[in-house]
Design a protein that fits this description.
The chain is an all-alpha fold. It has helices at 3-24, 26-29, 37-46, 50-73, 80-104.
Length: 108
């Protein structure tokens, strides 16, 4: 892959997928205007920190991606759309973790 192709891919991933999904999902997941509401609520319900709540929710995605990677070794095929959905969710979880760390530890 050339540097130009890689840069184009990054731009498409960010603008078409990551940014759009993170903005659109706010209405669904950000109760009371708090983008991190679901992690805080799950943390309350389970007696853990919001970071640990995110870890638990992200684990489902990690298992799914690992199952797909194992499936590739077995000759299974997955659509580009499915891979993109899984990978975008994974990237979004890391961005949300960053936000939780930022808020929890008062990063500037």
């Amino acid at each position: 892959m050339t540097q130009e192709d890689f840069n184009n891919l990054l731009e498409r991933i960010w603008t078409t997928h990551i940014k759009d999904v993170m903005c659109k999902k706010s209405a669904e997941y950000a109760s009371g205007g708090d983008k991190l509401h679901n992690f805080k609520r799950a943390a309350q319900m389970n007696g853990v920190s919001p970071i640990e709540a995110l870890r638990g929710m992200k684990l489902k995605h990690d298992v799914s991606i690992n199952d797909m990677l194992d499936g590739l070794k077995e000759g299974k095929e997955y659509t580009q759309l499915l891979w993109e959905e899984k990978l975008h969710d994974d990237i979004n979880y890391y961005l949300l973790l960053w936000a939780l760390l930022y808020e929890t530890y008062d990063w500037k």
